[in-house]
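Dear support,

I submitted the protein below through the web form. The confirmation email said the job was done, but the results page showed an empty box. After a refresh the structure appeared. I'm attaching both so you can tell me whether what I see now is the final result or a partial one.
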Amino acid sequence: MAYAGRVLVVEDEVLIRMLAVDMLSELGYRSDEAGTAAEAIDLLRADEADFAFVFLDIGLPDRSGDELIRDVRASQPQKPLLVASGEDRQELKRRLGAFAPIAFLDKPYDLQRLRTALAELGL
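What the results page shows now:
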């Protein structure tokens, strides 16, 4: 598989994060991982932060995913975001749709649904 780019995966549940990283690897992405919003911000601020997109869980232990999205948008307004959540998709779109480019992925997800969500982002 051709190298598709680097992605930041922000997920506090270790097994879910491992699954996401495996799926992304199958699609050609190399992943950096964060278990908290604070870790994600540190990785995004690093000099070598050249992520194709950020794949994040909306429910994080230290801050809400909504807040993390606002932080990402403040410094990287066009960075594609893929939000994974068990929350109602329509509510998420209402709350976060203005932070485009953004796509939503319902949990639990599989490789095909991940591929479809990435296509929505043009990736």
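Response: this is the final, complete result; the empty box was a page-load delay. The mean pLDDT is 94.
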